[in-house]
Design a protein that fits this description.
The complex is a heterotetramer, with 2 copies of chain A and 2 copies of chain C. By secondary structure, chain A is of the alpha+beta class. In chain A, 23% of the residues lie in helices and 29% in strands. The longest helix of chain A has 11 residues, at 30-40. In chain A, strands 2-1-5-3-4 form a 5-stranded mixed sheet. By secondary structure, chain C is of the alpha+beta class. In chain C, 32% of the residues lie in helices and 41% in strands. Chain C contains 3 helices and 9 strands, in the order βαβββαβββαββ. Chain C has helices at 17-24, 57-75, 105-122; strands at residues 5-11, 31-38, 42-43, 46-55, 79-85, 87-90, 94-102, 125-131, 134-137. In chain C, strands 3, 4, 6, 8 and 9 form a 5-stranded antiparallel sheet that branches. Chain C has a 4-stranded mixed sheet with strand order 1-5-7-2, sandwiched between helices. The longest helix of chain C is centred in the middle third of the chain and has 19 residues, at 57-75. Chain C is elongated and about 50 Å long. Classes of the chains: A alpha+beta, C alpha+beta. Chains in contact: A-D, B-C, C-D. The interface between B and C is medium-sized, with 19 and 30 residues. β2 of chain C pairs antiparallel with β2 (31-38) of chain D, so a sheet runs across the interface.
Chain lengths: 79, 79, 142, 142
Amino acid sequence: MKLVVLLFAGLREATGESRLELELCDGATVADAQAELLRRFPALRERRYAFALDHHYATGSTAVGSARELALIPPVSGG
Amino acid sequence: MKLVVLLFAGLREATGESRLELELCDGATVADAQAELLRRFPALRERRYAFALDHHYATGSTAVGSARELALIPPVSGG
Amino acid sequence: MLAARFELRFSTAPIALDPLVAEVRSDGDGAVLSFLGVVRDHARGKRVLHLDYEAYPPMAEVQMNLLFEEARERFGLERALVVHRTGRLLIGEASVAIVVATPHRAAAFDACRHLIDRLKETVPIWKKETYEDGSAWIGERS
Amino acid sequence: MLAARFELRFSTAPIALDPLVAEVRSDGDGAVLSFLGVVRDHARGKRVLHLDYEAYPPMAEVQMNLLFEEARERFGLERALVVHRTGRLLIGEASVAIVVATPHRAAAFDACRHLIDRLKETVPIWKKETYEDGSAWIGERS
């Protein structure tokens, strides 16, 4: 299954990517997606970020399920 | 000595006066001024109000001294 | 630019916030908080038609300056502008605007709340509510 | 008129408060509180030249709606509008406006403060500060 991945702010700058697609196995978790991202972008290793699946915060153990969008959320600083 | 007296809001409506002058003896207190006002305006007897001498809150025992303006301040309700 | 600036102003015209914000803010401020007291369509269980505000401006200025000083001592407030309407106000019109600007937001919330709470206690301004069946100066009845 | 009304909006243009107040207020409201976060000329001990804000709008909307719901449950808030800038901002420009309207003022202060505090914790918006000698996305360094 296909998952769109979004990268913001410092993560976007560190990877040079704001949007990409991953092909994941059925039953994949957020951690599986993260492992693939770390292979592609070693620069992510030293970064702090949370995950969001379809606009809701998620953790590594969250099943991707039918979600279509995974976002890596660096520490927010709005306001 | 002459003291200007100001009446506001419900006190102004009850007395029909917004500004008047009192002639007071040297050494008079706010309470002396009040006694004269109560003689002139019996409608003030059942009213609640504070006093202000030259724009600062005062009490009955405050000496009028060189103050020029006494205000009867009904309960405030600004804002 | 960072000078302390406190002012109470009376107005018979509607209050616009944006010009007040521009007056109060300095470049060191990260927070601007604006309180508007607005005429509600009901009060004390009655439908309100309109309000009339009356003030004693020179004393109001003295008393408001005491409150600005309190807010400066307690919250470090340096810049605030208060505009109060006088005369007749209709439903939805702002009767008072309190605009405060501070470097950080906590002081803005604390100081603004303090100013409106204390203004209602000590600043000589009076409100008369007119209903369908009469009118009353608020606070008169003990 | 008294219907609940919550909205988060992004803007690349300067924020004017008065139109937001007019949108949010209903005739049963006696208090309208407006918080502006403003770009300061210094931060983290450095002189700031400008800021750049980036957002993830669809998630920001979801997260902001959760915060509106919190404020409704905790403070009875029914009407609030949040406008956040994106793109480049200069000193003195408002980055965010939070306007809340409530029947009585205590809820306005509590709810507005809650919304800005929580927005800064969970809503996906990012700020990059540019100084004379470089720039940094805020919060990245652990």
